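Illustration: Olfactory receptor.
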Amino acid sequence: MWPNVSAASFLLTGFPGLETVHHWISIPFFAVYVSVLLGNGTLLYLIKDDHSLHEPMYYFLAMLAGTDLMVTLTTMPTVMGVLWVNHREMSHGACFLQAYFIHSLSIVESGVLLAMAYDRFIAIRIPLRYNSILTKSRVMKVGLGILLRGFLSLLPPILPLVWFPYCHSHVLSHAFCLHQDVMKLACADITFNRIYPVFLVAVTFFLDALIILFSYVLIIKTVMGIASAKEQAKAFNTCVSHISCVLVFYITVIGLTFIHRFGKHAPHVVHITMSYVYFLFPPFMNPIIYSVKSKQIQLSIVHLFSVHNRA
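Result:
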């Protein structure tokens, strides 16, 4: 059976009823997108350039920044296209590919946050074995595992979209393609596409969050056993950045889930806005959190600017 190649493209949607002010709405969106690109791009450059940041903790941070950059580059063209020039048409192939990357990268980000929790767990619970456990090769294997989990787990629900016939309205509810949006337009049995994502969320986001929570319970137990209050504060301080990123990510996930499940009577613009918050807020906040909370990142930024000023 050949893939469905219906001539009718999908139509993206910006903010319904606010089309006349899309050019004004585009200003904060563009500012946030640029900030995300600059912030995460700077983090990647610092980690690559500064040898003092060549540690497992910062390798995982580089993965987080890279994931946030990819999410931004995946959604930015279509969102800004709709807001700037009302370019709404999107081919089936491009739409399926965008949905695949958007959802895969969300699972990758959850996996990176879990790996960062594991890093902090080893650093505080068994610091003397930290370097022997988190070797460069092991960090690379963990990173590869995170990528494979994210990108392979999304193939089962995305591939059927290619063969589904689409005889309903071709209008999507966002300025980017989401699996749950596209599958509702199919004139086919979408039972698997409804059930599989629930299972996937349970074994990725939910399980990752539980393991992160459990690891921090053990970390707190270890820290509270340290006699010196100064050492306790120092140990906690190494976790603050990661805890903040975890909260930003999972609070937006929970917020979006609650809006979709229990906010059926909320205005449509609220649903759309929450979706944008979910995709833009964590990538926007993560570089800020690490720039404010990590002294090594701060020192690296100062060094970078001082070198450029001397030049």
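Reading the tokens back as a structure: The chain has a mean pLDDT of 91.
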